[in-house]
Design brief:
Largest sheet: 10 strands, antiparallel, barrel
Shape: globular
Strand order of the largest sheet: 1-2-3-4-5-6-7-8-9-10
Structural class: mainly beta
Radius of gyration: 17 Å
Strand content: over 45%
Length: about 200
């Protein structure tokens, strides 16, 4: 299902954008972004905070880092989940106004919970995250993006689909709305991106 959704976005984007007969600036891989929102985990509701950074290395490569933290509420009691990623990516332009990219990252995840049945007071683990995504410029100030990340971390693997729309308020600042869905959680976040 997740793979089909991304494939549909990839196949639809070139045709839809070609119909505009305009070429816009390519998506930037050099930015800082902060976002927060609400999430629905399989065990309870949560508030999320995310911090992302991307740096263009040139020649179609970029480095990135991501930190996320969530406070999950279970029947009035809460526990914290956090994850940090650092990795490298590569991107190309298969069609005008469309970028495809792939990423590989090292991840460190941790959760602190007062519930012994959920692994004790503290559980942590590390692993690898593989990603594939598309970024499409639907207008001079509108970017549509989608990606699938496969997390192979600690207690097993999970594929997560994320869809995002970014609107540039200025040449350096954009407002973004994203929807993320995996097997264990679904989240909606609002973000502020600053292009460097």
């Amino acid at each position: 299902m997740i793979a089909l959704a991304l494939a549909a976005l990839v196949s639809a984007s070139p045709g839809a954008l070609a119909a505009t007969a305009q070429v816009y600036d390519r998506p930037s891989y050099q930015y800082l972004q902060i976002s927060s929102g609400s999430a629905d985990y399989s065990v309870g509701d949560a508030q999320e905070f995310n911090l992302e950074a991307s740096w263009d290395l040139g020649d179609g490569y970029f480095a990135f880092a991501d930190y996320s933290q969530a406070r999950v509420d279970i029947n009035g009691q809460g526990y914290d989940r956090s994850a940090a990623l650092i990795g490298l990516g590569t991107h190309g332009e298969p069609a005008e106004n469309v970028d495809l990219y792939g990423t590989l990252a090292f991840a460190d995840a941790e959760q602190n919970t007062p519930f012994p049945g959920m692994g004790g007071p503290s559980v942590s683990g590390d692993g690898i995250v593989f990603g594939l995504g598309v970024r499409a410029m639907a207008g001079p100030r509108l970017e549509l993006a989608g990606k699938v990340d496969y997390f192979d971390v600690a207690d097993g693997g999970e594929a997560i689909l994320e869809l995002e729309a970014l609107v540039k308020a200025t040449d350096r600042i954009a407002i973004g709305l994203s929807h993320r869905k995996g097997e264990r959680a679904e989240a909606f976040t609002l973000g502020l991106r600053v292009y460097l």
